[in-house]
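Attaching the record inline, Q. Sequence:
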Amino acid sequence: KADKEKRDSMSFFDKLQYGPSFYVKRYDDDNQRVYKTIPIKLPSKWRNDLNYSARSKDGRVLFDSLPADANGNQCAALLLKRDDEVAQANTDPKKLREVFDEVLPQFSALLDDDTIENVAKKPPSFLPSFRYVAPRLNQGDRTVI
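Structure, as predicted:
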């Protein structure tokens, strides 16, 4: 709106110098993923300065774990499709444990039952949808990141 008002007040030559109109292209998210965060404590034999990642063959589950401190604590994100049964709030902890045992057994062993129960109760968080901004990343004194 601000860009249109500014352009409307310009002469033809000013518009040429100013460049094309600013716009944001929003894309439909046809494969939306949600995530749940999971605290993990790594065993002392594991390197605690690495990211750990895994995914299922069918793409149902994506798992990324990042170092949170120098003491072996990690913050993991379990990414699932929005309509996945275990992606919902208050899902059955037994079903979530089954997913970990089947797809992520190396990480399942690191999660006690209380952690699994807390993650199962937790509502999902949503990733931002993708947008394209053109022809520049700023509009006046605002910047798009």
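The two ends are 19 Å apart (CA to CA). The chain has a mean pLDDT of 88.

More tomorrow.
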